[in-house]
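Is adenosine monophosphate placement plausible here? Inputs below.
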Amino acid sequence: GFAKLDHHRKLRSGFGEVIYCSGKSMDHLVKIFLNFDEKGVDVLGTRATREQYEKVKEMIPDAEYDEIARIIRIQRTNHEKKGLIAVCTGGTSDIPVAEEAAQTAEFFGSNVIRIYDVGVAGIHRLLSKIGAIQEANCIIAVAGMEGALPGVIAGMVDKPVIAVPTSVGYGSNFGGLSSLLTMLNSCAEGIAVVNIDNGFGAAYLGTQINRLTEGNHGE
Amino acid sequence: GFAKLDHHRKLRSGFGEVIYCSGKSMDHLVKIFLNFDEKGVDVLGTRATREQYEKVKEMIPDAEYDEIARIIRIQRTNHEKKGLIAVCTGGTSDIPVAEEAAQTAEFFGSNVIRIYDVGVAGIHRLLSKIGAIQEANCIIAVAGMEGALPGVIAGMVDKPVIAVPTSVGYGSNFGGLSSLLTMLNSCAEGIAVVNIDNGFGAAYLGTQINRLTEGNHGE
Amino acid sequence: GFAKLDHHRKLRSGFGEVIYCSGKSMDHLVKIFLNFDEKGVDVLGTRATREQYEKVKEMIPDAEYDEIARIIRIQRTNHEKKGLIAVCTGGTSDIPVAEEAAQTAEFFGSNVIRIYDVGVAGIHRLLSKIGAIQEANCIIAVAGMEGALPGVIAGMVDKPVIAVPTSVGYGSNFGGLSSLLTMLNSCAEGIAVVNIDNGFGAAYLGTQINRLTEGNHGE
Amino acid sequence: GFAKLDHHRKLRSGFGEVIYCSGKSMDHLVKIFLNFDEKGVDVLGTRATREQYEKVKEMIPDAEYDEIARIIRIQRTNHEKKGLIAVCTGGTSDIPVAEEAAQTAEFFGSNVIRIYDVGVAGIHRLLSKIGAIQEANCIIAVAGMEGALPGVIAGMVDKPVIAVPTSVGYGSNFGGLSSLLTMLNSCAEGIAVVNIDNGFGAAYLGTQINRLTEGNHGE
Amino acid sequence: GFAKLDHHRKLRSGFGEVIYCSGKSMDHLVKIFLNFDEKGVDVLGTRATREQYEKVKEMIPDAEYDEIARIIRIQRTNHEKKGLIAVCTGGTSDIPVAEEAAQTAEFFGSNVIRIYDVGVAGIHRLLSKIGAIQEANCIIAVAGMEGALPGVIAGMVDKPVIAVPTSVGYGSNFGGLSSLLTMLNSCAEGIAVVNIDNGFGAAYLGTQINRLTEGNHGE
Amino acid sequence: GFAKLDHHRKLRSGFGEVIYCSGKSMDHLVKIFLNFDEKGVDVLGTRATREQYEKVKEMIPDAEYDEIARIIRIQRTNHEKKGLIAVCTGGTSDIPVAEEAAQTAEFFGSNVIRIYDVGVAGIHRLLSKIGAIQEANCIIAVAGMEGALPGVIAGMVDKPVIAVPTSVGYGSNFGGLSSLLTMLNSCAEGIAVVNIDNGFGAAYLGTQINRLTEGNHGE
Amino acid sequence: GFAKLDHHRKLRSGFGEVIYCSGKSMDHLVKIFLNFDEKGVDVLGTRATREQYEKVKEMIPDAEYDEIARIIRIQRTNHEKKGLIAVCTGGTSDIPVAEEAAQTAEFFGSNVIRIYDVGVAGIHRLLSKIGAIQEANCIIAVAGMEGALPGVIAGMVDKPVIAVPTSVGYGSNFGGLSSLLTMLNSCAEGIAVVNIDNGFGAAYLGTQINRLTEGNHGE
Amino acid sequence: GFAKLDHHRKLRSGFGEVIYCSGKSMDHLVKIFLNFDEKGVDVLGTRATREQYEKVKEMIPDAEYDEIARIIRIQRTNHEKKGLIAVCTGGTSDIPVAEEAAQTAEFFGSNVIRIYDVGVAGIHRLLSKIGAIQEANCIIAVAGMEGALPGVIAGMVDKPVIAVPTSVGYGSNFGGLSSLLTMLNSCAEGIAVVNIDNGFGAAYLGTQINRLTEGNHGE
Ligand SMILES: Nc1ncnc2c1ncn2[C@@H]1O[C@H](COP(=O)(O)O)[C@@H](O)[C@H]1O
Ligand SMILES: Nc1ncnc2c1ncn2[C@@H]1O[C@H](COP(=O)(O)O)[C@@H](O)[C@H]1O
Ligand SMILES: Nc1ncnc2c1ncn2[C@@H]1O[C@H](COP(=O)(O)O)[C@@H](O)[C@H]1O
Ligand SMILES: Nc1ncnc2c1ncn2[C@@H]1O[C@H](COP(=O)(O)O)[C@@H](O)[C@H]1O
Ligand SMILES: [Mg+2]
Ligand SMILES: [Mg+2]
Ligand SMILES: [Mg+2]
Ligand SMILES: [Mg+2]
Ligand SMILES: [Mg+2]
Ligand SMILES: [Mg+2]
Ligand SMILES: [Mg+2]
Ligand SMILES: [Mg+2]
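Reply from A.M.:
I modeled the complex. Tokens:
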């Protein structure tokens, strides 16, 4: 049967479930949260509005909300965090996407170091932090506008760099297209690109790599 | 100084150098090959024409050429290969890009298993190979046209899947755009996208992950 | 004259009329509904807001509304449904478009089986339903994000698969472009693509095929 | 096992195999043809160059070639053709794509009527043929440049119209994009769009529909 | 001096001024209207909101507003209208753009015949009106979605057809791109394309042609 | 019947036929030329290669060829030319498209004045010619790269300006897209845009307008 | 250290700081303003809403706001302005972007002359101002829609022209794409393009050039 | 008259003429070269093939050719060079465009320093050269693929950076689009973008700025 397949693909086994809240009706959303909550697993809700959170909190009082990351979290278990992922941003406007990544990675059991606002237009900011970045098992580099940060970092470390383009910018940014193309075309080696604004996806991939490094292959 | 940076970023340290041959003048190319050859390091030339190869062979007789992968290889050392990367393709037309990836990964010291022509339009082909794919530390999934292969694989394994869109197709494929977008928008978790036809980049990233897994952090 | 042409093109002859409500002024819309209602034919209104529905209901009390499908229905006659169309979705967010398709197909006299949330990122979900899907005369496969569902289904059945890309997704999804291109470039055979979010068009096409199969050629 | 799946998806069962010749190496191509030929099945090669044909003919003397359709055909069996598909084009430059469709449909056992050069810029040409078109179980409408033909036909018949955009045109045609978009956005009902220049895909879909109509469900 | 240039370019000389109201601040807009009004010339305001109209009306009581065309009109003079322009639409949703064209053309002194909802998906509607269309000196054909109307009309008359793509549609319509490309790529002869939704521009061009025909060369 | 339609749409009635030579097979092309030639009508072949011309000349010795315009012309009759069309270009590289327009307009019986290389980057060149341009009944303005010429001319004359974008340029010109968009978005009034490089279409439209002006309504 | 780098890159040294207000939370924004204000430097806030301004004004009473330019300014010092920058626009809708440029340039110590609404569709307007424009050390030319203004100006002066495309327009303007492409493809020499609507960036670049000219190299 | 305008716009006055050779016929090209040569002015031909050069050399024996820059140069006068422009590239494949820029700038009388292959994927290379770069009056930064170089340089100097995107790259580079968008969206200040591969345009703009700095305002 395919149960085996299903079992194998669960990174989050023992780490809780993730709900993509965007566009879900209030009724539907609350039902899903309650469902998971009854099973006692930890639950993370991404792309959640404050309004959604408040409804969930009515039913599950120890639900927490992070305004910046737009994340609802119900944490019951307490796993020891392992390894290290560095989450970097080019500017301050990229922080919401970075926090979605950072908090998701923490939820999945990774230690995270945040290094924000180190965009390449003021390269000294990045250079002064490069030592800390080199400690991580992998780097999540979040950038909008020209999106050059992942390429510069990838040239300075030899760990995988997960590049997250953001839709931050205006005009010929075309909703994140400019930073997406920059990252795909980087001449630096070791760059893994995910969708525009996809902090969650970067965190998932980062956790997979971080765990592999720590000899924890998903069990 | 920055020598430290430079040292740190070299995955290939002890594994040889890689030359991107496309668009280089014959003179320039031969000079670079001779230069590395004199240092005794292994050398890989990607996107090489047969014509370029023949010129290089005149100077370095034990240079080898792979017509499909368009790779020139000068292998002097003999490192033991480690870990395992699975390289999969959707169709047979994707094989040149897959071979660029596979041979580059081998050059960098990874064991590689090739699983070709398992595109999702005949899903039973993929299902019958999924056991072998699950053995690998990471998967390089190469696909043109609709590019759905990486997403389906990522749903069946819990290792990072490196997605390589190819320019194989016609019409609204728009030079690989269709498969690129498919991969970026996959709802499966754990997908790292690289540029269209970028087999080399996938292999570099795959080797980084494979080595991290094997506890061999670039030394 | 051209009356003959006009007569021939009416699939819905004897099945009622369909009104595209989006962007129509309240006055205009109500007038059209009343007009058809007076003739005693069944009427379906697609892309209708609740506000539009309520205005229509004031005049025609037995009008019904489906919030998800955004459909107003006035059903007076009771045709026996024929044949079978399978309506499948990749995710739960695609359900509104799928319901527009399913309810339209039912309105036109087709039996419909709904198989939702069987996206290819968890292929076992689809595999466990494939028997039911193979019973249908044609399949309407609705998917956003990477849009790979129709291609995988088309590889497992030998009936026409009507592929409906949805605008579900974000970032490089570009309003449904990514799933549209995926479907147009599928290497599976037997895929008919319609416009992004066009559940109605898929249902019309599906009903034509379903009726042809059932030996009911539009009369 | 999956053999059942595989069996179910074969429209061509008993009708022969189709090889996509474009980009295949001479060696590889000849081997595939010989392989099928030994099994005694009929074989169709699409997108074949005359050079490829001549090589195939050396080995299989009764291979035939159609210059316009770029099709190699090895026909051994003689099935009775069923039903009727109308293949229409807007202009004479669309004929190669139309012939790929028509000859593929015939290979799969459908009767085909060709109605070429009836583009909407001279609508009387189409109107004078509409009677013949209405006889078919489905219509394949092939058009480049503005691609309006399928929409006009779909308004005059109540059978599925398979719309094939071609790359015929220049300037803002952008390689077939203009006709592709026209067809996807048609306000006529009952239009199934395939990829630009994909005569083969249209024929496969058309044959599925034609057979369903004729009560011949793939056996 | 350049006064001569300026004088020569005024089609509207003696016909009044046109103000593009969209995006103008209330203050600024009212000032411009008052300015022209004081000179006693007729004034037309396009793309005007009802709110803008009400503010203008406070100052200039005989200002009139057309909700559909979004036009404010202050008509003092009474020129005899000349010639004939036919304004046609594919659907009813295109009427706002068509009315902008029709009312602008009337303001500039052209007789206008309106022939709406004659889209090519039901070609008999157009065919039954073709006699009336052929009477005009030029035709303004307004269409969204697939935008095929101008091409079909241009094939039936030998007068210039001014093609106005509209942004009516959804999905792969991409804000009017699909109908724009259709019109630019039409194989019919005698088609002049203007910007998406640009009813005003079509009317200006149409009036120039209509006047030339009537031997009234701008004086 | 529709014969009336057909008759009405022929601008060229009494002026000869036009053949679009691009992509036609030699056999097919020669047959079409001979066919028209036998009827004694004048014939124009556009987008013709020298090779095509030479084949035609073998059969019809008084065929002439213009290398720049890529036009084959067989002129037997001698109509008096009427009215005036000005054909302008921005640069010298736009001349082939302009000559296609100019020679087609002459073939259809219009007087033509050529005013080349008056691009807006050196506006004095245009200003010194504006008197001549103002004499024409309409202007065909041909420009590549930024394509600003039609807009500047339209601001200085009050006759219709037919704007022909060319594919001249490189980089972000994207095959003529930049000049096409410029022309569609011009804020000058009275601009009719045709497809990229479509000199023929501009000439046809220009002749329609020129004849209307001269009181010669297609008879 | 990199402090030297940092110091060197500050054009604004001694001229105050610039805050990009768009998307910043109220709290965060006020904190930044207070921070700079305490240091006694002048501060400019771009892309500021009136709401943001009012909050800032509560804390820093001598903050000023320009509604059109959407700029908050706190000016304490009084530098003598130097050199001259001409800021031109094609239309009145481009003025907000032009004012962002003009007020930023003044903030950085440049004299500015404003020459608005001199678009190329009425070229005499520009010609009558060209003398004044030629006095400047560089020109900032702001234009939406077809964006032809910078090219025409660059043909008439021999100073650098900084071209600012705006998103003013509709339809095939595609959010400023049309004017951006026009400017990049201009055949006039000496044009420097910045992002769509980027008045700030143009002013910064203009000030650099203006200061270089005035022998004031950033110290 | 406008002669004054013309005179004012000539940067090259006293420096010779520039001919854009691409696409010019041999005859036409030689005639232009001879024409300028007779006047004794220096001449530069850009985008010239070796074949074009050889034809020119037959007539003008002291014509020189640079294979990399594709430049023909006829230098008779000997102006002292002034100021300093730094020309930098990201990779070695960008050198042809950089040499077009460098040699054009030298032809116009600027001193040039070349700093090649300092792309941001190995940032230490750029950092070690930053001192030299800071000496220049302006920087021309040439880069393909992700095009991040200009942004990083602009963050380290306070002189204008002229950004030249190149078409170097493959896949989602889309002919230079990725580097163009990167440069337009850079968050560094003081970046002037020119067209893809437009080394000539960058040199012209750079020379204008360099001369302004050196107090040599075009006379
Ligand atoms: N922010 C996000 N972006 C993309 N995918 C997400 C995000 N958050 C959660 N997901 C995925 O969506 C799945 C849940 O989807 P659903 O079943 O619709 O709630 C999770 O298991 C994740 O795979
Ligand atoms: N012209 C064509 N366009 C698209 N797909 C084709 C075409 N011709 C054949 N095919 C498909 O390609 C398959 C064979 O692919 P291959 O195994 O690469 O020869 C056939 O079974 C068809 O499904
Ligand atoms: N309107 C603007 N457009 C683009 N960049 C701007 C704008 N205004 C300010 N900036 C830049 O943004 C920087 C401030 O960004 P932040 O630190 O996020 O406030 C300034 O130093 C400028 O470089
Ligand atoms: N490589 C180039 N790219 C863009 N424009 C160029 C180039 N080389 C020369 N030009 C421009 O083209 C003009 C000559 O054009 P033409 O009159 O066609 O020879 C020169 O005066 C330059 O303004
Ligand atoms: Mg910052
Ligand atoms: Mg295969
Ligand atoms: Mg789900
Ligand atoms: Mg024809
Ligand atoms: Mg209608
Ligand atoms: Mg010129
Ligand atoms: Mg104005
Ligand atoms: Mg290098």
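Short version: Chain D touches chain B at residues 2-3, 5-6, 9, 22-24, 28, 165, 167, 175-177, 180, 195-198 (CB under 8 Å).
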